[in-house]
Design brief:
37% helix; 23% strand; 9 helices; alpha+beta; four-stranded antiparallel β-sheet; binds aspartic acid; eight-stranded mixed β-sheet
Length: 320
């Protein structure tokens, strides 16, 4: 017998130092429009009886194609001035998952993650092998400069100048990553009419990251997790912390074993454990009943959810 649940989708477009004085009214409006479009696309799949995997892919693909977010077009630059993208996807019904790390030519990394989940015996492919696999599966390929945007290039230039101004480059690069951590990774979690959860995350990583650095977003259990017995989670934030604290899985495990709500579990991990140690970021999540949560310890997180009852898009921490 099916348990009672709603269909629903919750998304994020990254957490970080997002303050009102940093966005013009036009930029803010344009970001809200793209978040709404992603929510509507994902929800339309669910409302038509489609599954949660296709719903989150529809939402994430739109955000990858938007230059506003640090995923697909608009991805941040690595220290050498290129783009290396990470993505993952997980299904809550059978714990199947797929991920790609450090791809440079795949236009929509979330589609490559899906192909890994569906058509490979592996969970994660990286680098050239992942790009070659996605090409063989017929996914659109681009040159690396397709991901370029003026705004991300400026951010790279600023960090590069600051780093070069300091003598001890190693130490400086770490400070800069901490101080300049802004926003932009994208993710989605949904539950469909069968009560099945799916979660996915896609990112360009962190500005000025080292060549070959892989963050939490493609790591199942860190940036993404989905299990029908507990919840679905997509994270955004300082990836090194999210990997070490196995954030997405820790939240789901607390729900499963501690008899707490998803909201309580997410608060304990993001506002408790992570905040204590300086791990900036946030998560979106959904429980099997279709109840969304959005928790972050930064000044803002691009986010929204849509259920049969409500549709919400928000940016700053003082919005609902
Ligand atoms: N979590 C991503 C990473 O560390 C970055 C982000 O969410 O903004 O690669």
């Amino acid at each position: 017998m099916a348990t009672e649940h709603n269909i629903g989708i919750v998304i994020h477009g990254g957490a970080g130092t997002i303050k009102r004085d940093q966005l013009s009214a036009a930029q803010e409006q344009s970001i809200r429009t793209d978040l709404q479009a992603a929510l509507d696309a994902g929800y339309a799949v669910l409302a038509a009886g489609g599954d949660s995997t296709q719903a989150i892919i529809a939402a994430i693909q739109l955000m990858e194609d938007s230059p506003h977010f640090n995923a697909g077009k608009g991805a941040v630059y690595t220290k050498p001035g290129k783009h290396e993208l990470d993505a993952s996807i997980m299904r809550g019904s059978d714990l199947e998952a797929g991920a790609v790390a450090g791809v440079s030519f795949t236009k929509n990394p979330i589609l490559a993650a899906e192909q890994v989940m569906l058509h490979s015996p592996h969970v994660m492919l990286a680098g050239t092998g992942a790009d070659t696999f996605s090409k063989a599966k017929g996914l659109a390929q681009v040159t690396n400069d397709y991901f370029d945007t003026e705004a991300r290039f400026k951010a790279w230039q600023e960090v590069d100048a600051k780093t070069k101004a300091k003598q001890q480059e190693q130490a400086a690069a770490k400070d800069v990553l901490d101080a300049e951590f802004k926003f932009g990774t994208v993710g989605a979690v949904a539950v469909d009419q069968n009560g099945d959860l799916a979660a996915g995350t896609s990112t360009g990583g962190m500005t000025y990251k080292a060549w070959g650095r892989i963050g939490d977003s493609p790591v199942i259990g860190a940036g993404t997790y989905a299990d029908n017995r507990s919840c679905g989670i997509s994270a955004t934030g300082h990836g090194e912390f999210f990997i070490r604290y196995a954030v997405a899985h820790d939240i789901c495990a607390r729900v499963r074993y501690q008899n707490v709500s998803l909201q309580q579990a997410a608060d304990a991990v993001i506002m408790g454990e992570l905040k204590k140690v300086g791990g900036s970021g946030g998560i979106i999540g959904m429980d099997p009943a279709g109840q969304p949560v959005m928790v972050f310890n930064t000044p803002g997180m691009y986010r929204g959810y849509k259920t049969p009852q409500q549709s919400v898009v928000a940016i700053y921490d003082d919005e609902d």
